[in-house]
Amino acid sequence: MIDYNFKVKGKPVEYALILSNQKRLPIDSKWVAEDLLAKLGEESDLSKKKLLEDEIEKAILKKVKEVTQYIDPVTTIPQAIAAVPDAAFSACRKAHMEAFKDRVILMPYSMTIPYVLALYNLNQQYSRSLDMDNLEGHLSLLEKYVDNIDKVLENSISRGNTMVSNAYNECKKYVGEIKGSLAYLKALPEQQSEPHAPELLEMFSNK
């Protein structure tokens, strides 16, 4: 049911839930801002607590960006999970939605296993064909790269000729990824694998 250190484009993610169509849901545990969380627990001044919460949220969003690298239309579904300590999650006010925009589900440790088990159960009952999963995954990736290209054009090329070279190389990279996704969509495979037997043991026992 669980892959440990599953690799996405050569990069290992701590856990990956194996779904019925053999796609994976990446699950990465992020222990963030330990010193800030300690200070937050001892702070009584509301204004200082807010400043600490802002710093914690910034640290969490930085980790969320790292988790986006584990989303791959070929091997994973179009989402990933970033699990953080409950205290860090409680300090968030808008990180949940910011993470969702990047297709990352931010959640506290205490809710991760119940959520994963519920998702696994639903997937076993109502999973769609592999073709549809591939289509959604590649379309999501195309949307992401189009947004990235738009940001490069706006933030880099518009600033002057000194950044044109870097922007050109970055755009070429995204265009190459888009071409790869489009080529994949032209020949989606048709296959369905048997679901794995459920087993989820102590995923976060050391966290």
Q: Main β-sheet: number of strands, strand sense, barrel status?
A: 5 strands, mixed
Strand content: 5-15%
The side-by-side strand order for the widest beta sheet comes to: 1-2-3-4-5
Residue share in helices? Answer: 40-55%
Radius of gyration: 19 Å
Uncertain regions spanning at least 5 consecutive residues: 191-201
Mean pLDDT: 79
Strand/helix succession: EEEHHEHHEHHH
Structural classification? alpha/beta
Q: What is the CATH domain class of the largest domain?
A: Alpha Beta
Cα(first) to Cα(last) distance is 20 Å
Structural domain tally: 2
- The total count of helices amounts to 7
* Number of β-strand runs: 5
User: What CATH architecture label of the largest domain applies?
Assistant: 3-Layer(aba) Sandwich
- At the third CATH level, what is the topology name of the largest domain? Trna Endonuclease, Chain: A, domain 1
Overall outline: flat
Description:
It is a single chain. The protein is of the alpha/beta class and 207 residues long. The chain folds into two domains: 125 residues, Trna Endonuclease, Chain: A, domain 1, CATH 3.40.1350; 56 residues. It is built from seven helices and five strands; from the N terminus they run βββααβααβααα. A five-stranded mixed sheet has the order 1-2-3-4-5, sandwiched between helices. α6 runs antiparallel to α7. It is flat, with a radius of gyration of 19 Å. The two termini are 20 Å apart.
